[in-house]
Design brief:
Largest sheet: 8 strands, mixed
Structural class: mainly beta
Mean pLDDT: 77
Number of domains: 1
Number of helices: 3
Low-confidence stretches: 7-17, 19-36
Order of helices and strands: HEHEEEHEEEEEEEE
């Protein structure tokens, strides 16, 4: 009689992670160099989003917005994502992230972002910016990105473009670029993602 065979358990699905984690996995098959991750264009967005992001920001995007919203990466459907990933990339994990992001934008485009949790400010960022005179959207560059994980350390910058849609929601486009040592090998990559966040309840 043959001994009983043991059937291995099905593989567990891993949660999604940012582009620099994906770069870490891809770089293991390379001797070194640049890893490019697919970007998200306006045509990849849901139809309702496209109508908003191609329009004019109806006022300066100052206000308080719920930190939990929706992100689109590549051709995927919108998934849950934190607004802190746009203004404070790499600083928080979603489970420990802020509840509200408060934005204050001046007439010259200068922006201050504050992350709130349990009634307290847990992070703050101030940067000079630019307001697109044709659309009213705000453009920031030099948002610092730093992420340390089991694959290595990646540092870089992120530029963001954001405005208010006619539906009152905040729409943000983030273009990230980073480089660092991943699994003892040099790695670099870039990513463009879009997101949408509702105003925070008063």
């Amino acid at each position: 009689m043959n001994p009983p065979q043991t059937v291995p358990p099905p593989p567990r699905r891993r949660p999604g992670f940012p582009w620099w984690h994906a770069a870490a996995l891809l770089i293991t098959s390379l001797a070194g160099g640049c890893v490019s991750v697919r970007s998200t264009s306006e045509e990849d967005l849901p139809a309702a989003w496209r109508a908003e992001v191609k329009g004019v920001s109806w006022r300066l995007p100052s206000g308080r917005f719920a930190a939990e919203g929706k992100l689109v990466r590549g051709e995927s459907q919108p998934v849950t994502g934190g607004l802190e990933q746009m203004f404070f990339p790499g600083q928080f994990r979603r489970s420990r992230g802020p509840e509200v992001i408060e934005l204050t934008v001046g007439a010259d485009g200068a922006c201050t972002a504050r992350a709130w949790k349990a009634g307290q400010i847990i992070a703050e960022l101030s940067l000079p910016g630019r307001i697109d005179p044709k659309t009213g959207w705000v453009e920031l560059s030099g948002v610092p990105v730093k992420d340390t994980n089991k694959f290595g350390v990646v540092m870089g910058t992120q530029s963001i473009r954001f405005g208010l849609g006619a539906d009152g929601a905040l729409y943000v486009r983030a273009h990230s670029y980073g480089a660092g040592m991943v699994l003892l090998l040099p790695a670099a990559g870039s990513s463009v993602v879009w997101g949408r966040w509702e105003p925070a309840p008063r």
